[in-house]
Amino acid sequence: MTTPRIGLLGTGFWAQRVHAPALAAHPGVELTGVWGRRPEAAEELAHAHGARAHTSPDALFAECDAVALALPPAVQAPLATRAAEAGCHLLLDKPVALDPADARTLDEAATRAHVASVVFFTARFGTHEAEWIAGRAEEGGWFTAHADWLGSVFAEGSDSPYAASAWRREKGALWDVGPHALSVLLPVLGDAEDVTARRGPADTVLLTLRHRGGAASSATLSLTAPPAAAGVAVTLRGAAGVAVLPRRQDGPLPAYHRAVDALLLAARTGHPHPCDLRFGRRVTEILAAAEQALD
Asked: Which stretches make up the Gfo/Idh/MocA-like oxidoreductase N-terminal domain (predicted)?
């Protein structure tokens, strides 16, 4: 069989650190092209990984079977919609969009085109985290949970490579790390039927959910936590006792490799992955409801 050709949209830090090297090294795909809003950056990234820089997204779509996106969500959604309409399978970043209408349009375009989709929620593709989430979902019986997803991207003295991210600064922790928290809570406790949110210091948000079936959860989200207080913790409580999300044992590259595997399997079999566009769209809807509660 011909190796599927995949293109990369985006040339920023995340694309340089994860997407491009993971795609170039993956034996199941051929990284054939790169497009970015800065042509010189696309040329440099493509050259570093044996691919070709493209001057337009549509030119890239025409030469690819799938595309991976490493773009701000407001840019990702319309370009991914065009990619789906061109018949390309989609490997998306989170959140898939900032507006539920854009997420719906993208989801519907992918459905009409019969293309597979996977959204790269990092925890869902980490070996230990993914096994833990699946195991706790199978156990069931959880009545409450709390997640702390605390980063220091915009804390005083931060040297984070994401500190220059305009969309993160504008939308804050709710939209940047909120998807990660939801990617763990929703598959274990069920969809959220009621959403509330309150502001804390700086961009910190306290998110509270009532899930289908009656379970309740909360999450504290921040990109402005003091470095000494930053970190991730998720605790479930239920009939089985107390369960704590294991610490990440590997970095984002192996997780992204598994996300590519998931996309290839979904494209080959036609069976949707649990982290497909339908799930990504639902996450956007929940975050938008939380944002409305804040306003």
From this structure: 5-118
